[in-house]
Every structure is written in structure tokens, then in C-alpha cells.
């Protein structure tokens, strides 16, 4: 067996297992909370290790990871109604204050770099992943109960995966014009446009099926689902490019090797990091207007 074929098999098996775990995790509210708490923690741990390898940077890897996981769980508790008081966020605020104050005593080479990279980890990873709870849980104004909505978060990830796969296939077959050659030389306009068209079509199909099956709220029109497809394509692509810029800044090819053939956790969730908050903004904008 050639090395190329072996790598393809490893990549395929890893991809199938990854998708299976994600789908199973998004079908149950308890599984979803545990899964994304783990993803949040692992991504911050991975990120912290990468930036700590940069000369002049030394952030508190353990405390940063614990803070990010706590923020996710606090959002989950608040959104599900398990905790109805804002006091649940107080420990997170205290930890953030600690991460600033510790630099007074740490005597590291560059405190400004430490602060910047520490807060970037929280804003870039902990906050977007915590917002998954906004997508997944919604309080019904009629009965007053909090309902877990599988459709929205699962559909968002399906559209992200379709966009990535479609862009890769279309780019391989038709790609000629580079999208961002200085950041991601492999991406092309042809691939991005082709993947985007496929994704928007699938979004419309999901919307049509959701109406036929009378899925839980919030309910979008088919046109609204097409708009969601556009949002996921644009911000998913930007999310991919942002992570590519991060890796280039740190002079890295992959964020890690925890997923054979796919790199690290950041490599797998780069598109979602911007797509999650963008999807929430889109849904609430639809509700307002």
C-alpha cells in the first residue's frame, strides 16, 4: 500500500468517526453540553500550547482552559434555566481579573503579549463555542419551558461540512484563481463559489424538509434557510482563513495532530468559530425584522 493511499484511508476513517461523534452529540442536550465543553477545553489547551511556543509569550495554559470551559458551562446553565441568576458568570469574571493581575508577579518577558494572547483565546474560542448554547436552547414563550433544538446547530455543521467538501472538490476540478494566496494558497475562487452554491442549495432542501416534518422552533422560511446557507458559506470561509492566518503568524502547518489526517481541533472547527456567532446574529436579525 502506497503512503498516499494509506494517508487517504486514515483521513477518511477519521473523518467518518468525527462526523458520527458530532451528529450523535448534537442529538441529545446532555451529550451536546459534554461534547462542546470538551471541544472548548481541548481547543483552548491546543491554542495555548501553540502560542506558548512563540518566543516572548507565556500564558497560563491551565487557568485559560478552565476559564473557557467554565464560560461554556455557565452559558449552558443560564440558557437551559438550570441557573437563573447572572451570578453564575461571576467566577469567570474573577478568573479573567486573575489572568491580568498575575502578570504583575510573573515577571515574564512581555506582559502585553501574554495579556493579548490570553484574551484572544477567550474571545476567539471560549466565547464562540459558548454561544452554541444560544443556538441549541430556546425558551418557548407559550409554555415557558426551555426546548433543545437539534435542527439548528446540526444543520449549521452539516452546511459547514458540505461547504468545505464542495469547495475542495470544485477547487480540485476547476480551481485556477487563488482566493487568498498570501494566507491560504490552496483555496480558489472557483472552489469557494462552487462549494457555496452547493451549500445554499442544500440549505434550501433542509428548509423545505423541516417544514414538511414540522420540526421544533425557531422556524425559518425556505428563503430564510437559503439566507442561512449564504451566512454559513461566507463566515465559514472567513473562519477558515482566520485560522490559516493564525497558523502562518505562528509559522505552523497544522494546529496539532490529535485527528490523524486532519490536524488538530482548531483545524476541524476553524470554520465554525466565526459561523456560530454569525448564525446567531442572523437568526435574531430575522426575528427582529
Automatic annotation (TrEMBL):
Pfam families reported in the protein's UniProt record? CTP_transf_1
Query: Where does this one sit in the cell?
Result: Cell membrane
- Membrane topology designation: Multi-pass membrane protein
What's the chief localization of this chain?
membrane
The UniProt record lists the keyword Metal-binding: no
Question: What EC number(s) has UniProt assigned to this enzyme?
Answer: 2.7.7.41
The transmembrane residues are 12-39, 59-78, 85-105, 117-137, 144-162, 191-210, 222-239
Example GO molecular function: nucleotidyltransferase activity
Keyword Hydrolase on this protein? no
- InterPro entries in the cross-refs: PC_trans
* Superkingdom, natural source: Bacteria
State the signal peptide span: none
* Catalytic activity line of the entry: a 1,2-diacyl-sn-glycero-3-phosphate + CTP + H(+) = a CDP-1,2-diacyl-sn-glycerol + diphosphate
Q: What class of enzyme is it?
A: transferase
Q: Which PROSITE patterns does this chain map to?
A: CDS
Keywords in UniProt for this one?
Cell membrane, Lipid biosynthesis, Lipid metabolism, Membrane, Nucleotidyltransferase, Phospholipid biosynthesis, Phospholipid metabolism, Transferase, Transmembrane, Transmembrane helix
Q: Look up the record and name the pathway of this protein.
A: Lipid metabolism; Phospholipid metabolism; CDP-diacylglycerol biosynthesis; CDP-diacylglycerol from sn-glycerol 3-phosphate: step 3/3
Q: Which family does it belong to?
A: Belongs to the CDS family.
Q: What is this protein called?
A: Phosphatidate cytidylyltransferase
Q: Which organism is it from?
A: Segatella cerevisiae
Amino acid at each position: 500500500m502506497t503512503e498516499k493511499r494509506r494517508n487517504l484511508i486514515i483521513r477518511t476513517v477519521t473523518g467518518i468517526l468525527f462526523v458520527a461523534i458530532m451528529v450523535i452529540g448534537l442529538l441529545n442536550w446532555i451529550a451536546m453540553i459534554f461534547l462542546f465543553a470538551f471541544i472548548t477545553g481541548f481547543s483552548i489547551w491546543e491554542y495555548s500550547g501553540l502560542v506558548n511556543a512563540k518566543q516572548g509569550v507565556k500564558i497560563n495554559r491551565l487557568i485559560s482552559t478552565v476559564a473557557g470551559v467554565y464560560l461554556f458551562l455557565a452559558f449552558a446553565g443560564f440558557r437551559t434555566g438550570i441557573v437563573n441568576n447572572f451570578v453564575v458568570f461571576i467566577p469567570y469574571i474573577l478568573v479573567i481579573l486573575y489572568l491580568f493581575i498575575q502578570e504583575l508577579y510573573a515577571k515574564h518577558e512581555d506582559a502585553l503579549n501574554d495579556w493579548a494572547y490570553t484574551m484572544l483565546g477567550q474571545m476567539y474560542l471560549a466565547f464562540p463555542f459558548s454561544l452554541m448554547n444560544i443556538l441549541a436552547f430556546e425558551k418557548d414563550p407559550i409554555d415557558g419551558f426551555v426546548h433543545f433544538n437539534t435542527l439548528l446547530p446540526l444543520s449549521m455543521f452539516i452546511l459547514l461540512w458540505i461547504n468545505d467538501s464542495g469547495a475542495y472538490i470544485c477547487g480540485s476540478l476547476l480551481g485556477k484563481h487563488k482566493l487568498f494566496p498570501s494566507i491560504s494558497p490552496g483555496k480558489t475562487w472557483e472552489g469557494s463559489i462552487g462549494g457555496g452554491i452547493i451549500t445554499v442549495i442544500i440549505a434550501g432542501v433542509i428548509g423545505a424538509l423541516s417544514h414538511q416534518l414540522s420540526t421544533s422552533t425557531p422556524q425559518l422560511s425556505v428563503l430564510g434557510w437559503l439566507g442561512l446557507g449564504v451566512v454559513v458559506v461566507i463566515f465559514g470561509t472567513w473562519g477558515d482563513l482566520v485560522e490559516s492566518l493564525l497558523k502562518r503568524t505562528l509559522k505552523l502547518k497544522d494546529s496539532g495532530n490529535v485527528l490523524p489526517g486532519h490536524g488538530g481541533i482548531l483545524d476541524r472547527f476553524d470554520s465554525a468559530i466565526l459561523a456560530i456567532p454569525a448564525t446567531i446574529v442572523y437568526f435574531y436579525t430575522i426575528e427582529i425584522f
